[in-house]
Amino acid sequence: MSDNVVHQRRIFLRQVAAAVGAVPLSLGATAGIAATAPVSGGAVAPDSVPIEHAWRFFNGDEARAVEAAVARIIPTDDTGPGAREAGVAVFIDLQLSGAWGDGAQLYRHPPFMVGTPQQGYQLAFTPAEMFRLGFAKLDESARKAHGVAFADLAVQQQDELLALAEQGKLDFGELPSAVFFGALLDAVMEGFFSDPIYGGNREKIGWKLVGFPGVHASYANDIERHGVEWTRPPASIGDVS
């Protein structure tokens, strides 16, 4: 992957940061998902970084898969830490274990059919059902293609499978792989840039990357200070409450 692609990815992250608030996940327009990084030949993707988190939704195999997937969507590079280090998988796990995962704010009555892009999400799956099936099918696709689970693939192979999922070219049964990838991408972005109280953006990695100051109580004294560098560290809701 060229340095230009990596640079464009970081520009993309800065652009989407402005649209991602400190709120839980949404699905489509009603409730609250590719870029890749340079890879070195067939280097094997590293195992999940140990974290202090008791998985509430994902089982062990699913946790390995989600850690590997988020690490490819926002990987660590020369610019800074990526989604794995920011605890994005933890953010997704916590969201799926709660009301959002159960589809509490989704309209879930039939008929279920392919809708227009303007209609948003049209499937019968709750977010929890979609992610559970999606990661199972991602592992299944990896085993069919390469004989091992997704988390055990080389990073280039992981990128290739995720690209196929994004293009809707993987067979996930009743769940279009493109819908799963879109939901995953949204969740990664929100977990990377949301307030750390939701479990992601650990050590404010996402905010530091884009220069977002967080939720300082008042900016009134700084409104007219044009062209002056902001030197205060980013603040979380948890820092001021």
Looking at this protein, list some descriptive labels.
single chain; 241 residues; mainly alpha; 8 helices; 40% helix
Measured as a percent range, the helix fraction is: 40-55%
User: N- to C-terminal separation?
Assistant: 43 Å
Low-confidence stretches: 19-24, 26-49
Rg estimate, integer Å: 18 Å
Structural class by sheet pairing and helices: mainly alpha
Main sheet specs: none
| Pattern of helices and strands | HHHHHHHH
Helix count? 8
Mean pLDDT value: 81
Number of strands: 0
Q: Report the principal-axis shape.
A: globular
What fraction of the residues are assigned to beta strands by DSSP? Answer: under 5%
What does this molecule look like?
It is a single chain. The chain is mostly helical and 241 residues long. The protein has a domain at 57-216. 40% of the residues lie in helices and 0% in strands. Helix 3 packs across helix 6 and helix 5 packs across helix 6 (177-193). The radius of gyration is 18 Å and the shape is globular. The model is unreliable at 19-24 and 26-49 (pLDDT under 50).
